[in-house]
UniProtKB/TrEMBL annotation:
Annotated coiled-coil segments of the chain: 10-37
Protein name as catalogued: EAL domain-containing protein
Boundaries of every EAL domain copy: 24-279
Residues of the full protein shown: 318 to 609 of 609
UniProt organism field: Vreelandella gomseomensis
């Protein structure tokens, strides 16, 4: 009896696995088509300098108009893209699109700011990365200082350290800014902080949203920010959803901030308006434009 129900369970499980596999295969082939059919697009989320309240940079975030499922967020397709190696061509598309957008805004008279592009460990393991980035910059005519490469702290541990460090060093020498994303949430070692050519540290969102009423985490956050600033990193807070959080992070010494309270990720059209010089420089809450 037990044996029979065990087998049934196994059959159920393998049927689910097959369904999942079919679904992933379909997503993979749809993604391949999307890459060549303008079905991917980017939103841009402003980052604010806390001293001036001005937008000083932004983050590019990829989205997908899926033909059967509609708008898809990165969490719904990047894991499959990663597992099937498609993250590399998607990453090059994101880099190219970011540089093309920046140049287009500049041609229209916009005062452009640097834009951060997220990179997975797999992209950093591609030894052609610096050459390809140089090619994209040359082709679009964009200066390297307008490009920021953002590596999640969690993916640092997956890097074949030597090769990836030299890739990052090469990108940094080209004038591209390097950011560690979601710091404090993964397993980066202090040694990695010392070895990698880092300009900016993005604190993991948990430092913004679980702090206000805990004295111990207050002291911890403050000490962490002081430590990072002492090493000359720019410290950017993420996931800022309330004014209270923003004021708190400012008091703790953060240099910059990003989050829904300041601005949601914006469509390229809405973001482009923020770069327009005729408009007074956007101040904190003025950035709260609704998305679409
Ligand atoms: P991330 O790099 O940590 O990006 C920030 C994510 O938090 C974005 O989600 C953004 O919409 C969301 N967010 C911003 N402010 C707030 C806030 O105040 N509260 C909350 N709860 N969320 C906020 P999104 O766009 O869904 O992206 C998710 C992740 O997907 C990104 O996390 C990044 O790791 C990855 N990703 C996005 N675009 C790319 C890309 O072009 N390439 C790669 N490799 N990864 C990407
Ligand atoms: Mg990021
Ligand atoms: Mg994240």
């Amino acid at each position: 009896h037990a044996k029979k129900s065990g087998r049934n369970k196994y059959q159920l499980f393998s049927a689910e696995m097959n369904a999942q596999k079919t679904q992933n295969n379909r997503l993979e082939s749809q993604l391949n088509l999307a890459l060549n059919a303008d079905a991917l697009f980017l939103d841009f989320q402003p980052r604010i300098d806390l001293a001036t309240g001005h937008m000083v940079s932004a983050e590019a975030l990829v989205r997908w108009h899926n033909p059967t499922q509609g708008l898809m967020q990165p969490s719904a397709f990047l894991p499959i893209a990663e597992a099937r190696g498609l993250i590399v061509p998607i990453g090059y598309w994101v880099l190219g699109e970011t540089c093309r957008r920046l140049q287009a805004w500049r041609r229209e008279g916009g005062h452009i700011v640097p834009i951060a592009v997220n990179m997975s460990a797999m992209q950093l393991r591609d030894s052609l990365l610096p050459a390809r980035v140089a090619e994209i910059l040359a082709k679009t005519g964009l200066e390297a200082r307008f490009l920021e490469i953002e590596v999640a702290e969690g993916s640092l541990t997956h890097l074949h350290t030597d090769a990836s460090i030299s890739t990052l060093v090469e990108l940094s020498r080209m004038g591209i800014r390097i950011t560690i994303d979601d710091f404090g949430d993964g397993r980066a070692s202090l040694k990695q902080l010392q070895c990698f050519p880092i300009n900016t540290i993005n604190l993991a969102p948990c430092f913004s949203n679980c702090i206000l009423d805990h004295q111990k985490s207050d002291a911890f956050t403050k000490a962490l920010i002081n430590f990072l600033k002492g090493l000359s990193f720019r410290v950017n807070a993420k996931g800022v959803e309330t004014l209270a959080q923003l004021k708190y992070l400012e008091m703790q010494g953060c240099d910059g901030a990003q989050g829904f309270w300041l601005s949601k990720p914006l469509s390229a059209t809405h973001f482009g308006v923020l770069l327009c010089p005729d408009r007074p420089k956007p101040q904190l809450r003025q950035l709260v434009l609704r998305h679409h």
